[in-house]
Amino acid sequence: MKNRRTFHKFTYKDSNFRLCCRDVLRMTDEIIRQRTILEEYIVRQPEFKTSLVPLRPLQDAPEIAMRMCRAAMDVGVGPMAAVAGAIAQCAAEAAVHEGDEDVIVENGGDIFMVVSNLLSIGIHAGPQSPFNGLAFRVEPDDTPLAICSSSSMMGHSMSMGACDLATVVAKDAALADAAATLAANLVATPEDLEPTAARILAVPGVLGVLLVKSDKMAIQGTLPELVRNADSDTLLKITRDVNSQQL
Q: Is residue 47 part of a domain?
């Protein structure tokens, strides 16, 4: 019987994490370090924090800002649309660099993982969604992999759409995060699902897209296998922000 994974909750400023790794302190130190680097960079380029369109980074920008700017440019959004995914991947890469072979970082619904055993990731599209009984079945060979989600209805991030759930799969977590943000912005009605999925899938580096609005779902591209979610505690594992009023 394989060992069950142990997850640790960690909150830093306005970010809420669930972490699975061998050395939690090493990972939390990296999260704080990357957040500090980013905050110091924003002092030098204040528009980085507020821009809703892509920005050219400063010539000496740190790696995390460069990743966010590249993702924003590819997707067509502001760089902060990629922040949660970028930090999640940086933290996971720090653990992998230390030799850890089973690493999962969730940063408010944005997940980056490198796993040695099968992983099931539940889908949550809001209260009473008919799709909440589904999960992604992630095989070790699928990883490293990012599965990032955005919602117009849950959480505190600004959204210009009315999408219940926008999930994007990519190898780059900053890209997946930025693309999920754009997808949530573009979906206002069920009729928007398929054209939005096609637009997001056309972004270089995006592997697959899953979108939910009301009782309709659109799936395009290559995603981990969708299976029945056998975990009855999925709702308890959501990294709910204190500013979010909806689950």
A: yes
Give the neighbor-by-neighbor strand order of the sheet with 216-221. 8-12, 15-20, 103-107, 110-114, 145-150, 165-170, 206-213, 216-221
**pTM across the whole model:** 0.90
Whether the Cβ atoms of residue 136 and residue 95 lie closer than 8 Å to each other: no
CA separation, residue 165 to residues 15, 135, 222, 246 (Å): 19, 13, 17, 13
Radius of gyration of the chain (CA): 17
Number of domains in the chain: 1
Question: CA-CA distance, 156 to 164, in Å (whole number)?
Answer: 14
**Residue 90 resides in a domain:** yes
Structure tokens that stand for 14 in this block: 């306005």
User: Which residue stretches of 113-191 are H helix?
Assistant: 173-186
Helix axes 173-186, 193-201, angle to 10 degrees: 150
Chain CA centroid to CA 110, Å = 2
The Cα–Cα gap between 97 and 84 comes to 20
Query: What's residue 156's pLDDT?
Result: 47
pLDDT tens-digit series, residues 51-109: 999 999 999 999 999 999 999 999 999 999 999 999 999 999 999 999 999 999 999 99
Phi, psi of 106, rounded to the nearest 5 degrees? -110, 125
The answer to whether position 240 is within a domain reads no
Q: Coil, strand, or helix at residue 184?
A: helix
Split at pLDDT 50, 70, 90, the class of 245 is very low
Tally the residues of the chain: 247
Tokens of 191: 């009729």
Closest by CA position to 151, among listed 98, 206, 84: 84
